[in-house]
Amino acid sequence: MFRRREPVPFAFIAEADKFRSNVTPPPRERASAGQIAGRTLIGLTVVAGLVGSLLFGVPALSADQSPAHTQQSEASDGR
Fold first, then answer.
1. Alpha carbons 68 and 61: distance in angstroms, whole number
2. Integer Cα distance of 20 and 15 in angstroms
3. Is this prediction's pTM over 0.85?
């Protein structure tokens, strides 16, 4: 079912590390103005979401403030 792998000679691995190609990759295409604007808007949206969640979340997590008044139901009011 499982086959044993044959050992690879160390010289073969050393040769593979030395190998360098003389073919250079083509230069990357520059992003268009629309792509840059889109990436910037997405980044700003993510940052604004994180800042907004901090602004709303930090006050809700603080436990040192006591509530201004306690809530009472109408059923507990005497008639």
1. 16
2. 10
3. no
